[in-house]
Amino acid sequence: MAPIAQPVTVSLDELKKVACGASLTGHHPRTGTVSLEALREAFGPDSLGILVVRDVPPEFSTLRQHLLSYSSYLGNLPKSQLDKLENEKAKYLTGWSLGKETLKNGQVDTLKGSFYANCAFYVDPKLSCAVPTEQFNPDNFPEYLSPNIWPDEATLPGFRQTFEDLCRLIIDVAVLVARACDRFAEKEITGYPRGYLEKVVSTSTTTKARLLHYFPEDPSHEPAPVAMPDEVANSNDPDEDDWCATHLDHGCLTGLTSAMFVDESQSDPTEAAPEIERASRGLPPLAPLPELEASPDPAAGLYIKSRTGQTVHVKIPRDCIAFQTGEALERITGGKFKAVPHFVRGARAALSEGRIARNTLAVFTQPNLGDEVDMEQHITFGEFARGIVAKNTVS
After folding, report:
1. How far apart are CA 129 and CA 207, in angstroms?
2. Cβ neighbours around 287 below 10 Å, total
3. Cβ atoms 255, 323 nearer than 8 A
4. What Å distances lie between residue 176 and 12, 148, 193, 243, CA to CA?
5. Which residues is 17 bridged to in the sheet?
6. Nearest Cα to Cα of residue 360 among 75, 88, 161
7. pLDDT for residue 10
8. Taking the CA atoms of the chain, what radius of gyration do you get in angstroms?
9. What are phi and psi of 281, to 5 degrees?
């Protein structure tokens, strides 16, 4: 069994506060009390590439439990309703998708459902997708330039508001993490643009969020062996990454909530159906589902491969937000920050008395479409992202 990692943890106050004697320039303090040594340990050459932030705003816990409960409610809606939330033209990068992504040497992923939403509302509440550029427009890049598709309020009352509120909170914290990363990069990387990452995170209309519902494993299903890439495989278990294959995020910083494990045999999300009429009667949104204290399978959850080549199990505390590095940041920093290979391992049905689902949220902070991520080859984020989407989507 892989060891459990102990990622670097800092408080929100440490990210906010100004160190004694710090020089203030511009609209924001340039220096927090998080040490450069801590940043090096979190993101440097020998790091896990992940930073955990504790003491986040108190409303985070309520928003997290509520939105992750919606993930089960959403994933268990009738197919006829979910079909209305799909956007094939946008390669399923807005709205709902299931079985549309290719993983593991072309295998179609039917183990998790996704709901994507553009987070351009963080920059301007009137925006529903990225701002078009001369090079990228809704016709040639609908993946990022298609408006959000939200479930009907009568179907999932309160879903959109909860989703947007939690994403705004996570991006607020991501801005502070980005500022800390800038401090590290400005010291370590010659020619690094001052305040670059903070500007990306705080002003991008390209940031996306992905609400994930990992379906319970079927006890009668015997998983087929999986061929893992040589550079990330270090286990004798051929089905190690069965819930989500080993991959890299292609943004800058990915904000992650801890996963919610739900026993859907005890808390049946399909029971939401009789409550669909609640909104029309002015009743409150759907109630959060009971959350298991932990997965019945201790090996289930998020794994990352450290920069020393070791695969480790990462457990994010429920009251914290984790941030990990992606490919865009690796390119921007010339490889000083490395993208984190990671995967999700499912809860084995044999170890569970019920039907265990896993719900989580990832917020991918990304440069605007026209911003360069490769300064030498002059590759924009839009061009880079288009290649990733083509590789990962069922044709």
Report:
1. 9
2. 12
3. yes
4. 8, 26, 17, 31
5. none
6. 75
7. 95
8. 20
9. -95, 5
| pLDDT for the residue 261 | 92
What's the confidence (pLDDT) of residue 57? 96
Pairing of strands 301-305, 260-263: unpaired
For each of the domains in the chain, give its residue range(s) and CATH number, in order of start.
8-12+34-276+287-392 (2.60.120.330)
Q: At what angle do helices 159-188 and 196-203 cross, to 10 degrees?
A: 170
Helix/strand/coil (H/E/C) assignment for every residue in the chain: CCCECCCEEEEHHHHHCCCCCCCEECCEECCCCCCHHHHHHHHCCCCCCEEEEECCCCHHHHHHHHHHHHHHHHHCCCHHHHHCCCCCCCCCCCEEEECCEEECCCEECCCEEEEEEECHHHCCCCCCCCCCCCCCCCCCCHHHHCCCCCCCCCCCCCHHHHHHHHHHHHHHHHHHHHHHHHHHHHHHCCCCCCCHHHHHHHHCCCCEEEEEEECCCCCCCCCCCCCCCCCCCCCCCCCCCCCEEEECCCCCEEEECCCEEEECCCCCHHHHHHHHHHHHHCCCCCCCCCCCCCCCCCCCEEEEECCCCCEEEECCCCCCEEEEECHHHHHHCCCCCCCCCEEEECCCHHHCCCCEEEEEEEEEECCCCCCEEECCCCEEHHHHHHHHHHHHECC
Q: Which of 358, 349, 240 is nearest to 303 (CA)?
A: 240
Q: What is the pLDDT of residue 64?
A: 97
Task: Return the amino acid letter for 88.
Answer: E
Over the chain (395 residues), the average pLDDT of each successive run of 10 is: 86 78 42 80 82 96 95 93 95 91 67 94 96 90 95 90 97 95 86 90 96 82 36 40 64 94 84 50 71 86 80 93 91 81 73 79 94 77 79 56
Residues 6+ apart with CB under 8 A from 256: 302, 316, 321, 322, 323, 324, 360, 361, 362, 363
* Tokens linked to 295: 């997965």
Record the tokens describing residue 147, joined without a space: 């408006």
